[in-house]
Amino acid sequence: MYKLAIFDFDGTLVDSAPGIVDVMKDVVNEYKFNPDILQSWSHLIGVPLVKQIEILFPDKLTAFHEEVAAVYREIYDTKTIEICPLFPGLEEMLRKLRDAEILISIASSKRRNLIDVVLEHHSLSDYFSIVVGATDITQHKPHPESILLTAKKLNIPLSNTVVIGDSTYDLDMARNAGVDAIGVTTGIHTREHLQQSEPKHIVDGLHEVWPLILNREIKEPPKPKS
Question: Would you call 77 a catalytic residue per the annotation?
């Protein structure tokens, strides 16, 4: 059994991808961007917002990237609760992990205040020992800073930590930290895409996640040759 479970937020705990894409569409319409960028943009969910804009428009100046990000946030912030419905089985999973005395945290590229709004709305805040958002770190996914910070603050060894996420950014972050990972197919990346990051497991929903955390496979050390 693991002692610490670090969850991504968007696409992992909440079914926010459709609502996020709708906000992207509003921004595309606002600026009259080529609608074809939506496909590329949607695959960047999980990357910090300004970085998303930089990737989409590498030839534009920083002021433009920040302006587009500000417009996106202005639209998104009015719909935070609406955009973030909980995935089925979320509270049951959290309750089972808590009852097993497993610490639960979030590592997300979303601003922490928005995560807090959703958790408080659904009365879930008390389940989480720590929430690490975009402004709490300097190096973002797939860099392992979020994991290292969380494990250090909660005093849990990395060997007893598992990361759960819906994107390769999450799974690569886990791999870069040297911790186990569970991929979920409920977000932006397909099972085939997730497999590229070589997680320990890939599942199709939260109801499959908690048994893997509780019933962790621990490999027996090799027996010495006689």
Answer: no
Between CA 21 and CA 18 the distance in angstroms is 5
Q: Give the residue-averaged pLDDT of 14-18.
A: 95
The rounded radius of gyration (Å) of the Cα atoms in the chain is 18
Q: What angle do CA 54, 110, 105 make, to 5 degrees?
A: 140
Compute CA distances 196 → 133, 172, 193, 203, whole Å: 25, 9, 6, 15
Q: How far, in Å, CA of 176 to CA of 204, rounded?
A: 24
Please identify which of the residues 10, 170, 172, 180 carries the catalytic annotation: 10
Q: Could you read off the pLDDT of 145-172 as tens digits, one per residue?
A: 999 999 999 999 999 999 999 999 999 9
Q: Return the pLDDT at 147.
A: 98
Tell me which residue has tokens 């603050």. 153
Instruction: Judge whether 26 counts as a catalytic residue.
Output: no
**CB of 185 closer than 8 Å to CB of 209:** no
List Cβ neighbours of 219 (8 Å cut-off, separation of 6 or more): none
Least confident of 37-46, 52-61, 145-154: 37-46
